[in-house]
Amino acid sequence: MKKIAVYPGSFDPITNGHVDIIKRGLRMFDELIILVAYNRNKKTLFSVEERQELIREVIKDCKNVRVDCSDGLLVDFVKESGANVILRGCAPFPISSMNSSLPSSIGG
């Protein structure tokens, strides 16, 4: 089975951190869909079209990747696209910040 991942985000604007996740994702999956998720009621720095164009410019040399947009539910987009993975990034943070009763030494 082909491994297709969706990497959702607002990408307002795309950052080096996003690009790092995209490059890692391209090594792990057969196809990567970068999904610009938007809410018509939210004020953004860039329009959906501008964000898509910025992403396309950044990934122009990458293969097996496409850019799409949606204002609907992520789960619906994943089903419609035929993807079987949702790719997400996570900023590092100390584990102790999750529970104040844990000793700070646990978080590193």
What is the topology?
Layout: E1 4-9, H1 16-28, E2 31-37, H2 48-58, E3 65-70, H3 74-81, E4 85-86
Parallel strand pairs: 1-2, 1-4, 2-3
Notes on the protein architecture:
The protein has 108 residues and is α/β, with parallel strands linked by helices. The protein has 3 helices and 4 strands; from the N terminus they run βαβαβαβ. Helix 1 links the parallel strand 1 and strand 2. It is globular.
Could you describe the largest sheet, including whether it forms a barrel? 4 strands, parallel
Q: Report the β-strand fraction as a percent range.
A: 15-25%
- How many helical stretches? 3
Mean pLDDT: 88
**What distance lies between the first and last C-alpha atoms, to the nearest angstrom?**
39 Å
Structural shape: globular
Low-confidence segments, ≥5 residues, pLDDT <50?
A: none
Rounded to the nearest angstrom, the radius of gyration is: 16 Å
Strand order of the largest sheet: 3-2-1-4
Q: How would you spell out the order of helices and strands? A: EHEHEHE
The count of DSSP E runs of length 2 or more, i.e. the number of strands, is 4
Helical proportion, percent range:
25-40%
Q: Report the structural category.
A: alpha/beta
Summarize, please.
Helices cover 30% and strands 19% of the residues. It is built from three helices and four strands. It has a four-stranded parallel β-sheet with strand order 3-2-1-4, sandwiched between helices.
What key phrases describe this protein's structure?
3 helices, alpha/beta, globular, single chain, four-stranded parallel β-sheet, 30% helix, 108 residues
